[in-house]
């Protein structure tokens, strides 16, 4: 999984129907040589801007969306890193 | 997902039969250290040159093409970012 | 998908049985910050050295090989870009 | 697979239910030009901080979690490299 | 697929049971801008140190392992490049 910080909300009114109702956020990878990479993640565990999150990508991301195996999403927040967990 | 700007149309007359009828566009990743990467995306939600789009890649991309699970496509436009959504 | 130029043939006599009969070519990614990356692609639509091609990777690549879902190939030519399509 | 060194534990109390009970660790890729990249891995074979580990990523990672095919994890420790195996 | 040169054996006594009996080797990508990247590959076609090999990654890699679809491996040697095939 990637560690990223959520830096903004992403709004896309015209999108695949199956994505309606999903919340999208802009995330920036933190730590290590991959730091600074941007990706858009779906969030269903109410993470907020500024949170450090665990992001699963690829087919594993869709497993987060329960029975909705057919949603064209490839990056999802699967956890919010505890504030006192000082890793970088 | 990646955020990219659509910069051109891509024409490939000789291609896999299952790709016939699909529209292909050249996209450039924007924002973060991955900016500048080029990829070709399939588009079925009528995005246009200059639009900023959300792109799903890998097996998740095929989920955008409904029952056509067997199309050899690995990057698809899944949303068009609102003009007033100022993220970068 | 990636855009790449085919630069050579690749010969591998000792290989997985399921790959017998498949043609392999060396491709170089063109355009954008990913340009210059090399990968080996399977080709079943008779592309040739010098052609610019569309390459699908990952599980989507296997979808190009019809009912042979079980072939251990992760990059396949899915289209040949038209000569007069001037993208870079 | 990637070779990485485990450098820390990662705590995320708020996470997907299916991840409860799984141990997460911060890993740093070692060796070759990819060295220095950080990723978070799930560990079920009791690896510890400082160990050099083999990490599988993508859908292959979920295969490590036995019947739990539906866990949204994309990187798992699949082996601990022997101390006297001097590769870099 | 990647082209890589096998540079060492990798020993990991403590590993997933399903990996027992599999031979692991350290490979270095050769050619193009990705050259120098290290990865560990499973080998079942008796490749040796110094060989240039074709490596499939991701879910395609598991297809090389016949009916063992459930082995948590994400990179496998699928061919040995002929000695007189002078590509770089």
Task: Walk me through the structure.
- The structure is a homopentamer of 88-residue chains.
- Chain A has 88 residues and is mainly beta.
- The first copy, chain A, has a single domain, classed as EutN/Ccml (OB fold (Dihydrolipoamide Acetyltransferase, E2P), Beta Barrel), CATH 2.40.50.
- In chain A, 5% of the residues lie in helices and 41% in strands.
- Chain A contains one helix and six strands, in the order βββββαβ.
- The first copy, chain A, has a five-stranded antiparallel β-sheet with strand order 4-3-1-5-6.
- In chain A, β3 and β4 form a beta hairpin.
- The radius of gyration of chain A is 13 Å and the shape is globular.
- The model of chain A has no long low-confidence stretch (mean pLDDT 94).
- Chains A and B meet through β1, β2, β3, β4 and α1 of A and β5, α1 and β6 of B.
Quick summary:
Chain A is mainly β.
């Amino acid at each position: 999984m990637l560690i990223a910080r959520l830096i903004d909300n992403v709004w896309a009114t015209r999108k695949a129907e199956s994505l309606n109702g999903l919340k999208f956020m802009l995330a920036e990878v933190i730590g290590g040589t991959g730091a600074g990479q941007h990706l858009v993640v779906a969030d269903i565990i109410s993470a907020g801007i500024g949170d450090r999150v665990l992001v699963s990508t690829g087919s594993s991301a869709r497993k987060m969306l329960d029975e909705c195996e057919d949603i064209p999403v490839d990056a999802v927040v699967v956890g919010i890193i505890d504030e006192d967990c000082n890793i970088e």
